[in-house]
Amino acid sequence: MGRVNLLVFLALLSVSTATRTISKSSSLTRASSDFNHVCNAEKFASYGFEMSLYPFCNKSVPYNVRLRDLVDSMTVEEKTIPGATSFPTVILSAASFNESLWKSLGQAVSTEARAMYSLGMAGLTFWSPNINVVRDPRWGRALETPGEDLFVVGHYAVNYVTGLQEVEGHGNSRDLNSRPLKVPACCKHYAAYDVDNWLGVDRYIVSDRDSIEVLVHGHKWLGDSKEGWIWVVVITIYPNFTMPAVKMGKVRESDIDKASFYLHNVLMRLGFFDGSPAYAALGKDDVCTKQNIELAIDAARQGIHDNKNDNR
Ligand SMILES: *[C@@H]1O[C@H](CO)[C@@H](O)[C@H](O)[C@H]1NC(C)=O
Ligand SMILES: *[C@@H]1O[C@H](CO)[C@@H](O)[C@H](O)[C@H]1NC(C)=O
Ligand SMILES: *[C@@H]1O[C@H](CO)[C@@H](O)[C@H](O)[C@H]1NC(C)=O
């Protein structure tokens, strides 16, 4: 057994899961739908490897022995798992007041995101940007927003989102719903007093991570009423409660259809169904590139420079 390019191999295993088809006909498809199970003999075999030759996959051996084997079989390059470029906090790059910089940041982030997706290390939807207008400096998340000025926040959002989403050559197509997407932006956080004006664009609204669960179980906002759960299913993903709610007439199937249409619309625009060869070709070499590190430094410099307000 020679040394194998382990990282690439592990990535391949993940990618095979990421690109799995809906078909359930082969047991391999079922097995490889498990993202978190690297030491799967069937998957090893499908790539021509014999899993028993890899002690790191032996469950009878202590973790430290398995880890020694794993680390020892990797080259230095393989051990340096790519990490995305770290850009300055948004409040800093917002202070550059430079719209093309904001767009460039979105483009760099979406390219790295697509590369990470190709490597099986990320999904395709990202919860960015945070465009809440800062009202109170005591809020702990002010630094990840463009600040307190509505005008700046709006312009930041337009440019950053364009950078994230725009597929080259399709920026001007008039029908927004038919535009392909590089990465779908998720402008957060929707608040009760936000004005609902989507200009005819099909979108979906998601709860903030586990907030619904926290609202119900943590804050006990809805008490223990079953009614509470009915509210929850309207906007969330608890399959246990969806069917009963439909049966009780609390949720209309047409509303579920609408939500399902919006979700799949985004997937289709992402090329999830048709493939995106140009993005699929992105990989490790497109993550944390020299060019993106320079962009990050530039973004930091531009923000700091403007804060000084020299002759401006
Ligand atoms: C796994 O490790 C145990 C304990 O060292 C050993 O007996 C067994 O042969 C190993 N299995 C494989 C497939 O190498
Ligand atoms: C804005 O940022 C870009 C980099 O994206 C830079 O090339 C340009 O010079 C900046 N514009 C100003 C006015 O500083
Ligand atoms: C959903 O139903 C399953 C099976 O009955 C149960 O194990 C699980 O705890 C339920 N989930 C919630 C959130 O109640």
TrEMBL record:
Taxonomy, superkingdom: Eukaryota
Protein name: Uncharacterized protein
Lineage of source species: Eukaryota, Viridiplantae, Streptophyta, Embryophyta, Tracheophyta
